Amino acid sequence: MSKKNGKTDSPPPGRFRPFADLEIPRDEPAHPAPDAPPPGPAPSEDVEFASAMDGVVKLEGTGSEPRDREPRPPRLPDEEDEWKRFADDFLSGGAGFDIQWSDEYVEGRRRDVDRSTMERLRTGRYAWQDYIDLHGMTRDEARVAVERFMVDQRKRNHRCVLVVHGRGKGSAGGLPVLKEKLVAWLTREGGIGTHVIAFTSARPCDGGVGAIYVLLRHGG
Questions:
Q1: pTM exceeding the 0.85 threshold for the entire prediction
Q2: With 103 labelled, which of 5, 38, 58, 132 sits at a CA distance of 20 to 30 A?
């Protein structure tokens, strides 16, 4: 640098390097890491699960035990099979009942029941003493209800009862399915038919073709 007029000349632009002579130490090259051993086989799922569950104690009374199942209700006879047997018996004359059936009206009597008894039942001269209404019931529910009703009525020494089954207008196709089943039940030996000696569609004042008068055997 030169001095002129007592002033120090500034270094030319781009040439000022005050640390040019300073020696900067260089990083030593890193030692290469030793080769890692090859990975071993992965543990099996069973080993991993056993390891994870180590020390776990099973709690008692947590609800994991199976609950006692409620007893199933007794199975009813197959409806379709029962209807087929009724139809076979009816067509072969082996049902034990003489049955007359039109589009809506139905009546039936045991073969040892005289026609005058049937006429009195048909015309309402046997006053019914109790009734059961099957509206809103499924076939299985109706069957159980009718059987219990008949047994109870005989124990009470009732002779004539009314069963309201409806006309089936609300069922699929508008068919009186429950009425058809009821006729099969009333004529089937070994079941509800054991209590019955005659039946007929009711008079209009008692429900008409939507109900049936049933004449029962004497006594329980």
A1: no
A2: 132
